[in-house]
Amino acid sequence: MIYSVETAEMIARHLLEIHAIKLSPDKPFTWASGLRSPIYCDNRIALSFPVIRTYIRQQLVDAAAEFFGEAELISGVATAGIAQGVLVAQEMGLPFSYVRSSKKSHGMTNQIEGLIHKGQSAIVVEDLVSTGKSSLSAVAALREAGVEVKGMLSIFTYGLAVADENFEKAKCKLISLSDYNNLIKVALENKYISQEDLLSLQNWRKNPGEWSEKFGK
């Protein structure tokens, strides 16, 4: 679910302008999973633009208040969600923690960094949601530690069906500032893509695996 159409379109415009999101249907990018994709997203670039960074932070704060109400903790998903989570926690005057993808192999072997308490209510901040697997791993770690997760906020989501299924199964509400549908709408309006590109981009969203196979390994 997106926060609002107005915010979704503005975020998409900002991310395209600063090349935090790149669209290339003819020469796709290769994700770490090996999947070919017409979109590459690196929202961390927004941190280098103070006006955009502040806008994103404020929209996350407003979305937190509207959808999740009061919370006692903001927790970021490592690594890209850490900076955004800190900005949100600072603005809301709340403690901050972050969750690693796995426990450290040395020292205190922590997976969650920062001081947390059983029974604390938390909002999780993520940078980008694809399948939701790594994001929900952070939610699971917090719950295992006794934290009540009220939901997750993200800057952007690809809106893949598998992610919707994973979040529903985990009983975790996801609110994103922008998504794939609004992105390609803004990209078309601002001539980042053509009508031909639009069809390819829509087909990728319907079946990423099948789309990827067309480009081989």
Q: What structural keywords apply?
A:
217 residues; globular; Rossmann fold; alpha/beta; two-stranded antiparallel ribbon
Query: CATH topology, what is it called?
Result: Rossmann fold
* Portion of residues within helices: 40-55%
Question: What integer is the average pLDDT?
Answer: 94
Classify the oligomer.
single chain
- Main sheet makeup: 6 strands, mixed
Can you list the strand order of the major beta sheet? 7-6-5-8-9-10
Name of the level-1 CATH class: Alpha Beta
Q: Roughly how many Å apart are the termini? A: 33 Å
What pattern of helices and strands is seen along the backbone?
A: HEEEEHEHEEEHEHEHHH
SSE-based structural type? alpha/beta
Count, helices: 8
| CATH architecture identity | 3-Layer(aba) Sandwich
Q: Give the overall form.
A: globular
Q: Stretches where pLDDT falls below 50 for ≥5 residues?
A: none
The structural domain count equals 1
Radius of gyration: 17 Å
What is the strand tally?
Answer: 10
Strand content: 15-25%
Kindly describe this structure.
The chain has 217 residues and is an alpha/beta fold. The chain has one domain: Rossmann fold, CATH 3.40.50. The chain has eight helices and ten strands. The chain has helices at 5-17, 50-68, 80-92, 133-144, 161-169, 180-189, 195-206, 208-213, and strands at 21-23, 29-30, 36-37, 39-41, 73-77, 96-99, 112-113, 121-129, 148-157, 174-179. Strands 7-6-5-8-9-10 form a six-stranded mixed β-sheet, sandwiched between helices. A two-stranded antiparallel sheet has the order 1-4. A two-stranded antiparallel sheet has the order 2-3. A hairpin with a 5-residue loop joins β2 and β3 (36-37).
